[in-house]
Amino acid sequence: MSNVQVLVACMHQDDDSLYKEMNLQTDVVLANQCDECSYRTYIQQDGNKVELVSSADRGVGKNRNKALMYASGKFLMCSDQDMIYADGYDKIVEDAFEKCPKADVIAFNLEYMNRFTPPSKEVSKFKRIHLWNCMRYGTARIAIRKSAVDKYCLSFSTLYGGGARFGSGEDSLFIREVFRKKLKMYASPTVIAKVKQEESSWFKGYNDKYFIDKGVLIANAFPLMKYVFALYFAYGLRNTSEEYSFYKIYRLILKGIKDFGRI
Hints:
Layout: E1 4-11, H1 18-21, E2 27-33, E3 38-43, E4 49-55, H2 60-70, E5 75-80, E6 83-85, H3 89-99, E7 105-112, E8 127-128, E9 142-145, H4 146-152, H5 170-180, E10 185-195, H6 208-221, H7 226-236, H8 246-261
Parallel strand pairs: 1-2, 1-5, 2-4, 7-10
Antiparallel strand pairs: 3-4, 5-9, 6-10, 7-9, 8-10
Helix pairs in contact: 6-7, 6-8, 7-8
């Protein structure tokens, strides 16, 4: 039996068909956002268990937290339903933690089949991740020890992501919390899954809301250095759209920082 368990934030599922669609090969929790509240268990031919936990709650953060409540694996992987996992991903994860036993969290590479979200640098070698570069890693890329989740009561913000008030950010804040708790995070160059990214519930292009929401996220993640990070992110996003100059992006991020203070 594998020590790896995949926690999938999904929508409108009524069976265990995602197990085959996503090429899953371990125990799975499907945290299913739909219009009913129910719990079902499916045992696969390979002996793995799929738990379908359905609720009418809205917001990816709530869904991920629900999956964490049902988690039981030694190593947990947070996933979205548009991912297709590599064969033997459980061994990839277990080998990575065996290689680096002091790691609490390990991020892996993803292969994007139809990317519309902002690009991030892929990892070329096994290395330590630090606070100043942790924000580029989403939780779909990571595996984390369940013991760390339990010990430090890690959870996802419900303010961000699809179905929530603000755009993406629940992943970044989760990883930010990892560093607040002084956990050790590493990155592996191995590709763990492909991502289809056919549509998004939160990314509607580089518009005012995108940059304002980025400011809200920065104020939440870095309260003492928010203005420094505002400059850093504005500079990094300056070429995303011809309609938005560095200064316009910076002003919108500052507006988001102010908006966070009013929440």
